[in-house]
């Protein structure tokens, strides 16, 4: 059975020192996944920084709702177009409201 798996995936490779997670094999894209995780790490707290809320405070639900309402009104208005940064802000606010549970 091990020989059959070796033929499909290639030989097992040793895990690099200091790295956690599955042992990389020939067919996996573990390096790309690692770099994507590092890129996303820079987006943590982006909504807090945009709204000027410190790390200790909670973002007020009323503020999130008012931003969502303003952006949805603009999207439905005469222009019916949001800029890329407004679209991103809208997605962040919707996600914050969804996970807040209110």
Task: Describe the secondary-structure layout.
Layout (H helix, E strand, L loop, with lengths): L1 H8 L20 H12 L4 H6 L9 H16 L7 H17 L2
Helix pairs in contact: 4-5
Structure notes:
- It is a single chain.
- This protein has a domain of 55 residues.
- The protein contains 5 helices and no strands.
- With 102 residues, the protein is an all-alpha fold.
- The model has no long low-confidence stretch (mean pLDDT 76).
- α4 crosses α5.
Can you tag this structure with a few keywords?
102 residues, mainly alpha, 5 helices, 0% strand
Q: Using the alpha-carbon principal axes, give the shape.
A: elongated
C-alpha end-to-end distance: 52 Å
Instruction: Give the low-confidence spans.
Output: none
DSSP, total strands: 0
User: Overall pLDDT, averaged?
Assistant: 76
Strand content: under 5%
Major sheet details = none
Structural class: mainly alpha
Rg (C-alpha, Å): 22 Å
Give the ordered list of helices and strands.
HHHHH
Secondary structure tally, helices = 5
Give a short summary of the structure.
Helices cover 58% and strands 0% of the residues. With 102 residues, the chain is mainly alpha-helical.
